[in-house]
Amino acid sequence: MADITLPLQEYCASLDENCLPRVLQVCSGVYFQGSVYEISGSEVCFSTGDLIKIIAIELQSVSCEYVSNNDKFELPIHHTGLFKVIPEPMPYNTVDEMMKLRPIGLESSLPFTFTSRTKIKMGDFTLSPGKELTVRCFEKLDDGNMCVRCFIRGQQDASAEVCIPLSTKGEFYECESDECFSLSEIMTSSSLRSRRFRFANTTKLQQPLLFSPVYQIHAIMTLRKNVLKFPSSLEVDVIDVTENCKADFVTPLSLTEILSQPDEKFPAVLEILEGPGCRAMFKCNWLAGLKTQNKVIFHKKGSAALVLISNLKSRKTQQYFLVSQHYGGRLKRRPREFSSVYEVYAASVNAPGLKVNVTRNCEEIEEEGVPALSVGEQLEIVRCERMELPNAKDTKEKQTVEALLCYRKADEDDEEEEEADRLDKEEMYLPMYMQGHFVEVLADNKKYKLKDLGKEFSLPLDVKVVTKDPELESDPLAASNLRIEAAMVEPVIQASFLNCPDKCFDIPSKWLSMSVYFTDESLPWPKDQPPKCRVETVTEITDDFLYEFRKQATSDVAPPPRPPKRDVSSSKSTKKSKKKSKSKADTVPCKELTDLTVNWKKRPPAPPVPDGIEDEHPPTVPPKSPATATMMGKAQPNTYVKMQDSIKKVPLNNEPDVDSDHDYETVDELATVIKKAQENVQFFK
User: Fold this and answer.
1) Structure pTM?
2) How far is it, in rounded angstroms, from Cα 552 to Cα 545?
3) Residue (of 99, 44, 106) closest to 231 by Cα position
4) Residue 140: left if φ>0, alpha if ψ -120 to 50, beta else—which one?
5) If pLDDT is split at 50, 70 and 90, which confidence band does 589 have?
6) CA 600 to CA 259: how far, in whole Å?
7) Max alpha carbon distance in the chain (Å)?
8) Could you write out the DSSP letters of every residue in 34-50?
């Protein structure tokens, strides 16, 4: 198949898995109808001239084509239907040629039926043309030649057997056999794949079919990260260039795969095929240099002891660092601060004999078992026990909660009193849910190396950097108050850039995703004279790193306990008192309620009533006549006048005075007007 251009589907149909790998060159590249996401990330297009190295093929389905009209459809490889072989119309010149071109091996193809259009002479015996001969088996004659033993069915069910040498000449045609094949059997035989078939269990679909396998091709391309997977039905013309190809197919490697390489391959120069993703885990100078097509030196691989350090929350920005235990600065321990008894207990588990000072007064809550604490008191943590909450009503209803047993003593300077306190220590219980303010008591003022702190003390640990690392140009931890939160051992790759081969940094392979490959480029230093490497020991990390780290390090530690429920008796009494006060409010006189304003202030008192007109109507001023108004020329001021004699009391049920010149209406007239108004309103509705 070398130097012959073929469609990819046709090339793969005749491909033998035993001859892999094969290198193909694309002669015409076309786009597959679909996007990269529709076929799960498989390669969908190739460019003319691309080299493809096929390393494996996997049968996916079978392409079926009608010989008459070239219509195509696909069937799954596990299709349950059966198919019959359609006899070839071409004649065979010898029996040997006919048997060798059988679709499968000679022994497994039997019985096999054929006919001869010419006479067959075998010594004194002659077979007339048109007879059907069924091959039963193969035999070896006395002269060493091979022959086939055939069964002949004659007239009136008469039968006979004859041996026909393979070298017998004539015009032979194969007959249709009753043998049926499945798709998987057809695809596993190179001879059967080239034959024509028809459906065996139906009479409607008798058209000849040609079968062609559809493979999923596994291939690699130069400078590609992963193994490509694409269907063989891709409409691409290819040519086999395996014998003439000298291209070096680069094998992309991840950082995890780099760790599995032998130590003899380091140091080496590698090129980056794919740099870290957009989700950065580190904030450091060397991360920006890890870009695609950049080259780096990998000096060695191994593991490094690292600690996770954070600065205290008192700073404006919270920072986190991965620090190597080879960090050269000096550190002092700082007392830890605790805001609850549970935090004190958690610290005492890893530090037996822990002592703390109370830094804020705490009031006693008797029903919750919370004792009173004063500033300056010192507590020595003993152990965790269960304490009984006080309950004076019924001993059967008493509750027990987890508490911290402590020895309490006052912060006194007198040594004799301190000695007496040691002899007579006061025991007290602090419930685990109790909130408070405590600070650790330290008597240690020693300077430590980072690796020594991890050996002598348990984490977490509060420290202060008192001496910076002299090997670092700028130590980000210098003069900082820090908390050592966790320690770990991580696989790392010591690397550097070509322009600064001695300035190294450790790449934590677990937390960085990259794709690289080994190059043949020589190292930038004389042979067997490697530079003295200076490795950065402090790397700032991002919140993404912290989130992933804590997610992997989560444990089934129980949360701190809750305080017990409060006694409901006190709340009930409070509710009763509220109800009583509410009932008293209901008995307030209406006059008092009406005298209250929005601002709960009393209205001012009413003006005094003039003498002699108490419980009487105010005086009525008659309307002015037009003449009077003209004579006056202007409106007269309204004045209050005592008109005791002029006021007349008119009963509401009396008839109005016709001679009176007032314009007031009686109650009956008002009722009539209101009724008419209501009727008018109803009419317009």
Assistant:
1) 0.50
2) 11
3) 44
4) beta
5) very low
6) 82
7) 175
8) S-TTTTTT---B--TT-
